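Box 3.1 A note on notation
Throughout this textbook, protein chains are presented in two layers. The first layer is the amino acid sequence; the second is a token string describing backbone geometry. Keep the layers aligned when reading.
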Amino acid sequence: QVQLVENGGGLVQAGGSLRLSCAASGATFTNYDMGWFRQAPGKEREFVAAISRAGSSTHYTDSVKGRFAISRDNAKNTVYLQMNSLKPEDTAVHYCAASTLFVTTTHDYDYWGQGTQVTVSS
């Protein structure tokens, strides 16, 4: 089993930046593709970004392209989400997740972190 712990959320003004991190343990990190998702109040959880197990491929939802960057450090068993030019609509609980597939669909991710709150004020 994979345990995932996110850090780095907080309150930031519109136009600001945050860097989320997600530390993995309990299994071989390089066996998993990793993703970031988010869930705003009253909305379904949605895909944000994914990175392949070697870090050679990434994928983003259209609303964050050019603003967010996903990366991973396999030596540290950690995946990151650099978020720039933040907007109020980015406000949500952000989750990292692990999958054996490089996909964007929530139900294909097997392990989830507890989430970290990101709040962007206007």
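The mean pLDDT is 97. The radius of gyration is 13 Å.
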